[in-house]
Structure formats: C-alpha cells, structure tokens
C-alpha cells in the first residue's frame, strides 16, 4: 500500500494514474494532460527526451552506480568539472547527494562546522526567512517557516537556533545587529519562495544581505533547488549575487533521477582543508554521485546551453505577461509572475477547490495548494500549450463566477 505525500489518506482523492509521458504531456488511460507543474518543478526538458534517455542508457551499459567512498568515475568527475566552470565566481567544490533536502542539510552542516573548525563555537544560529521552505527533513523543517508542513516540530517548542525574518531590509539589518556574532549562516530561497506560496521579492534585499554577511563574517547560502536552472528568468540567482554556498536539485537531472549538489566556494572549502582529520566533512549519502544521475545532469546542462534555454524562459515570461495583462477577479488577491513561474493567490482557498479536476477535464495537470493556483511549466512548452494552461486558469474564474 502506498502512503502518498501531503495527504490525509482517509479522505484522499484517487491520484491520476500515469501510463506514459512524452514532451510536456502526461497520459492517463483516458486523457492527455499538459504538465503545468513539471513534476514538482523538475522536468524542465520534458518527458522521454531522446538525448537524456540516451545518456542514461549509455551509462547503464557500463554501470548504474558505485559509491564515492574510495571510488570515483567519469560521469561524476565530468559533472563536477562542468559545474565548476559553469557556476559563477569560485563556487567550485561540489558535494553530491540524493535529494534537495539532504543537500540543504549538507549546506547547514558545512556552515556550522566551518565555524567549529575555526573554534568559533558560539556561532550555532541560522538566519532564515519567514515562509521559507527548504525540505522536509528535520533540520530543513526547523529552518523552514511553514506551519502547514512543519507543525510537528511544535512538539519541541520554539527553536533557539533559528531566527526568521521577512524579506525586508530593515528586518535584515536589525537581525544582523542583534545576532551577527552568533550566526553561522543566512539561508534563503533567492528571489522566489516556492512552497511558501510563490512569494517574490527584490534583488536589493539579497545585495544588502551579501554586504552584511561580508561585514559580519556570516556565510550566505542560496537554496536554488527550485529557482536554479532558469526558473526566475535568471540562469541562477547566484549570477546576480554570489553566495558562499549554493544548493541545486530538482532540474539538475531534468527530473529523471533524484539528485542534488551543495557547491561551496574556495573560502568555505579551505575551512575544512588542513592537516587535522577532525576538520573533515563527515558526510556521505549512499547514492551521492550516482552515475546515471550525473550522466543525465551533464546532458541536461548541454541542452540548456546549446538550445539557449534562457531565451525559451524569457519567451514563457513574455507570453505569460501578455496573457495575464488586464485579467483580474475580486477573488484574486494578487497575480505574480517571475520567469517561468506564475501564481494566482486567492483570498479564500475554497475559491480554487475543484480546480484540479476542472483542469484535468480540459487537458491540463495542475496541483494548486492552499491559496495558490500556479504554473511552472517545462521550458520546452509550445506557445499554444502555454496559452492553454493560462486560459484554463483564467476561465476557472469566469465559469465559476
Ligand atoms: C527551495 C527548496 N529546497 C529544498 C527542497 C527539497 O527538495 P527535495 O524534495 O528534493 O528533498 C525543495 C522542494 O520542493 C525546495 O523547493
């Protein structure tokens, strides 16, 4: 029996059973659906991509997986070389893991130990954002700020190790003034907070954060598990403001295989690199650097570059802005658009109850949550397909008015 995610199993509606997937389409026995969610924002190249399939098949004939403890292999070496040259600044040191949550855990562990290695043990606190979501493991729940996902932690009382602030510069400055000597890092989903409600904020906040982190010696971590690979209309937000540690996942493998990477800059890496064995990073997920995941990730980056995905993303944003221009409804609080993400926030979650089935019947797969009706489409979507996704969202309000 399957225990499904984020569901009360007693009242759960039957999930749609997918029997095939190709390009932007999911197929059930009786319906063809545009996937407007990109399988939790990861399938940027579409399903059953011939070149991605081939990359995996070629590697599979050699071996699927070997551990990185005492062993190494070409796909992981090539992927880390590629990331080193492709990512901005001196974000050069790649620690692989099997999911976004684990990769964020690794980033937080690195930040904590970085200061332990320097004997600054008072730096045990993390600064994070209100409405943050960084995963569902325990430490990522603790730095997250979303009652809907993380209420179970209430059993422990309020954490002494995390401070949450809104995305406002005065709050940022105040937090640094108060806690700077106890903070090891400031972690953010840069520009776009996903699961916390597709909340968008300005780059000036991150620029100020970079300055304050430099001033007080606090590490800046960008969790780009959701925003990386173009989702915000920037290749990485790290191209605009350089963090000390960058976390990537989801689209890294084009949604083919769970994999993620925590990338540190030289300063952070050197905080571990010395003659003292106790200064090593004691971490090692079984499936880190999985050869199939690395092969498909490499091919995905090649496609991203060769097929100029950034122009595809800018086109998606243009079409979305055009289609949403002038559209409003009294039940909608705000329509937010950034890159290849659009979100309608409604005042009352009941307003979008039933939307999923409505969209299904019109050939679109959607998964609204709480007060948010959104689309994060695969970048290979055609204009008419995108228009269909957006029209379905708008028509819901006119039909149910
Ligand atoms: C910003 C962010 N960080 C981390 C995660 C966790 O990634 P995973 O589900 O691969 O553990 C997510 C997942 O949605 C995310 O959006």
Structure characterization notes:
This protein has 401 residues and is of the alpha/beta class. It folds into two domains: 20-48 and 309-399, Aspartate Aminotransferase, domain 1; 50-306, Type I PLP-dependent aspartate aminotransferase-like (Major domain) (Aspartate Aminotransferase, domain 2). Helices cover 36% and strands 17% of the residues. The chain has helices at residues 38-41, 50-62, 74-86, 100-117, 138-143, 147-150, 169-179, 203-216, 266-270, 291-306, 309-324, 355-361, 383-399, and strands spanning 20-22, 25-27, 32-35, 91-97, 125-129, 162-165, 183-188, 192-193, 199-200, 219-223, 245-248, 260-265, 332-338, 341-346, 364-365, 372-375. The strands form four sheets. Strands 4-12-11-10-7-5-6 form a seven-stranded mixed beta sheet, sandwiched between helices. The longest helix has 18 residues, at 100-117. The protein is globular, with a radius of gyration of 21 Å. Pyridoxal-5'-phosphate binds next to helix 4. The site of pyridoxal-5'-phosphate has 14 residues, from helix 4.
Tell me the β content: 15-25%
User: Given the helix and strand composition, which structural class is it?
Assistant: alpha/beta
**Gyration radius from CA atoms, angstroms:** 21 Å
Largest sheet: 7 strands, mixed
Bound molecules: pyridoxal-5'-phosphate
Q: Quick check: average pLDDT?
A: 97
| CATH architectural category of the largest domain | 3-Layer(aba) Sandwich
Number of strands: 16
């Amino acid at each position: 029996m399957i225990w499904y995610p984020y569901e009360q199993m007693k009242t759960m509606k039957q999930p749609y059973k997918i029997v095939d997937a190709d390009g932007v389409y999911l197929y059930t026995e009786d319906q063809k659906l545009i996937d407007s969610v990109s399988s939790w924002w990861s399938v940027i190249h579409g399903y059953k991509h011939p070149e991605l399939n081939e990359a995996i098949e070629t590697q599979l004939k050699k071996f699927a997986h070997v551990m990185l403890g005492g062993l190494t292999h070409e796909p992981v070496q090539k992927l880390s070389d590629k990331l080193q040259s492709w990512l901005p600044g001196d974000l050069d040191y790649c620690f692989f893991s099997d999911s976004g949550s684990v990769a964020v855990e690794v980033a937080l562990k690195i930040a904590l130990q970085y200061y332990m290695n320097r004997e600054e043990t008072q730096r045990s606190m993390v600064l994070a954002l209100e409405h943050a979501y960084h995963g569902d493991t325990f430490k990522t729940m603790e730095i997250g700020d979303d009652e809907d996902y993380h209420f179970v932690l209430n059993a422990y009382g309020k954490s002494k190790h995390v401070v949450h602030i809104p995305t406002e510069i005065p709050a940022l400055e105040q937090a640094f003034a108060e806690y700077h000597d106890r903070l090891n890092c400031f972690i953010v989903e840069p520009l776009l907070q996903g699961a916390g409600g597709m909340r968008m904020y300005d780059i000036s906040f991150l620029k100020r954060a970079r300055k304050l982190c430099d001033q007080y010696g606090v590490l800046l971590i960008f969790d780009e598990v959701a925003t990386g690979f173009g989702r915000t209309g920037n290749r990485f937000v790290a191209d605009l403001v350089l963090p000390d540690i960058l976390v990537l996942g989801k689209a890294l493998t084009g949604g083919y295989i769970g994999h993620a990477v925590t990338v540190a800059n030289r300063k952070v890496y050197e905080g571990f690199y010395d003659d003292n064995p106790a200064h090593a990073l004691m971490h090692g997920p079984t499936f880190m650097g999985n050869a199939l995941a690395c092969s498909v990730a490499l091919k995905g980056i090649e496609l991203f570059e060769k097929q100029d995905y950034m122009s595809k993303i800018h086109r998606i944003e243009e079409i979305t802005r055009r289609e949403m221009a002038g559209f409003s409804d009294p039940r909608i609080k705000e329509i937010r658009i950034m890159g290849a993400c659009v979100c309608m926030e409604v005042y009352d979650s009941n307003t979008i109850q039933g939307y999923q089935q409505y969209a299904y019947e019109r050939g679109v797969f959607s998964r609204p949550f709480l007060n948010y009706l959104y689309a994060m489409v695969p970048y290979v979507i055609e204009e008419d397909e995108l228009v269909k996704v957006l029209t379905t969202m708008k028509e819901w309000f006119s039909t149910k008015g």
